[in-house]
């Protein structure tokens, strides 16, 4: 299938060849896209690693991995996609900033871990809660990494509390990927997985969970990953006029041919994938048969 296409070395950003996306329903960990905003953190002692759950909660708590392992484990097949996927195609119409992704900043994996709704119950937040008694309406995830865009500060993002406390939303604190412990590239030892939402909200290398009244005010929620009409440019942009992007639209990509391919007359098999949050978290894979 070939090696990954490396877009940026520092921080490391790379995507697999198109063919890797349709070679199997589950994307192998080694062929899952890499999206980073800073150096990949090193967690040397998993026994000392912990996540603090605090903010507008009744019982703030520090959780070690042994505490999370004791919670019921769930396996969720979910697709993650970088919000900037297919930026190269966008740039053919109008130049856009950001990593020049082709079509493969997306992957479908089996994630294993504890449901966030179970974790939040440990600090006194019942399931199916939209606001805590202290006014918390959003769940903010903070990483241990250091981002150049945040001037060395951590990556952070948030989702609504109503989504975080809904067991059917399948939001995980994941410690496994495709049946194996997470590797460093994909968030070891613990990451958030938010199905049906752009990958920017599935924070890796999790360090803190804060229950807050408003959406996360970090750069990646307020001044990035937002959708604007074509009339908006970098000179007239007003970030406050748009909400942070969460969902992604229906998309379909042919993966068995490159952008410029010559085919002989006759029957041609085209393998593709399609995805949308309405597909219950997962990619759909298929084949088309065309005659020329």
UniProtKB/TrEMBL annotation:
Alphabetic keyword roster: Oxidoreductase
The keyword Oxidoreductase is assigned to this record: yes
Gene3D superfamilies: Oxidoreductase, molybdopterin-binding domain
GO cellular component terms listed in the entry, alphabetical order: mitochondrion
Enzyme Commission code(s) on record: 1.8.3.1
SUPFAM superfamilies according to UniProt: Oxidoreductase molybdopterin-binding domain (SSF56524)
Pfam families the record matches: Oxidored_molyb
GO biological process, one term: sulfur compound metabolic process
Top EC class, one word: oxidoreductase
Protein name: Sulfite oxidase
Organism expressing this protein natively: Glycine soja (Wild soybean)
Lineage: Eukaryota, Viridiplantae, Streptophyta, Embryophyta, Tracheophyta
